[in-house]
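Bit of a strange request maybe. I'm writing a small parser for structure token strings and I need a real example to test against, not something I typed by hand. Could someone generate the tokens for this chain?
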Amino acid sequence: MIRISLTTLLIVYVLFFGGLLCCAWLIHRWRLRLSKKHDLTHRVRCNLCGCEFEDQTATLPVCIRCGAINERLPLERL
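Reply from user aminoacidic:
Good idea to test on real output. This should exercise your parser:
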């Protein structure tokens, strides 16, 4: 039989479940980051008026506010 003190058992328990909680939090943050990145794939910012809109067509995006033709550049948040 393995002899282990109560304090050692509690320390192992706290470290194990603390690590498990930390891993769950990291996985959640990673999935949230991927979700935000996926949301920005079809967003376009107009070079003329600064309007942001979503465009999923294969052609050059046309601004919904001013009608200017824009390039499809990756849109990033700070």
